[in-house]
Amino acid sequence: VQLVESGGGLVQPGGSLRLSCAASGFTVSSDWMYWVRQAPGKGLEYVSRINSRGTTYYADSVKGRVTIARDNAKNMLYLQMNSLKPEDTALYYCTRRWIEWGQGTQVTVSS
Predict the structure, then answer these.
(1) pLDDT tens string 55-111
(2) Which pLDDT belongs to residue 13?
(3) Per-residue confidence (pLDDT) for residue 94, from 0 to 100
(4) Within 10 Å of residue 70's Cβ, how many Cβ atoms?
(5) Using CA atoms, how far apart are residues 97 and 111, in angstroms rounded to an integer?
(6) Per-residue pLDDT, 93
(7) 14: left (phi over 0), alpha (psi -120 to 50) or beta
(8) Local structure of residue 25 (DSSP, 8 states)
(9) Of 44, 59, 83, 92, which has the highest C-beta tally within 10 A?
(10) Reduced to 3 states, what is the DSSP secondary structure of residue 86?
(11) What is the C-alpha separation between 42 and 30, in angstroms, rounded?
(12) Other CB atoms closer than 10 Å to residue 55's CB: what's the count?
């Protein structure tokens, strides 16, 4: 099993980013998939999840600003983030059931 995130970067407040997670060794549509972040000096924070039926859930801190999605044909997971705030700055991970993890992709929101 391998998860590889990409799409992070430096963005100004109010900007947008789309994070991607390429999965191999399993099918993203078959299981719960999560986006989790870790801000500097802080613990892991749940951001969003999607189940095998495609039902999506969001943390209150990001609700209305982010959208989790997947592409079953490409076996990819995505996180579209809009209206970014400085407090969204973190290392973002995709994870399968908090068991298998990618290496993370850094998102920095700063002017």
Answers:
(1) 999 999 999 999 999 999 999 999 999 999 999 999 999 999 999 999 999 999 999
(2) 98
(3) 97
(4) 19
(5) 34
(6) 98
(7) left
(8) S
(9) 92
(10) helix
(11) 31
(12) 9
16 CB-near residues (< 8 Å, 6+ apart) = 80, 81, 82, 83, 84
Closest CA to 40 of 85, 84, 91: 91
- What are the backbone dihedrals phi and psi of residue 88, each rounded to the nearest 5 degrees, phi first? -85, -5
- Per residue in 10-53, pLDDT tens? 999 999 999 999 999 999 999 999 999 999 999 999 999 999 99
Tokens 């191999």 — which residue?
Answer: 24
In degrees, rounded to 5, the angle at the alpha carbon of residue 91 between the alpha carbons of residues 87 and 96 is: 120
Q: Chain centroid to CA 38: how far?
A: 11
* Assigned token pair, 50: 């999607």
| 3-state DSSP assignment of residue 82 | coil
**Which pair of structure tokens corresponds to residue 57?**
């859930």
The whole-number pLDDT of residue 8 equals 97
Q: CA 12 to CA 6: how far, in whole Å?
A: 18
Helix, strand, coil % (nearest 5) of the chain?
A: 5, 50, 40
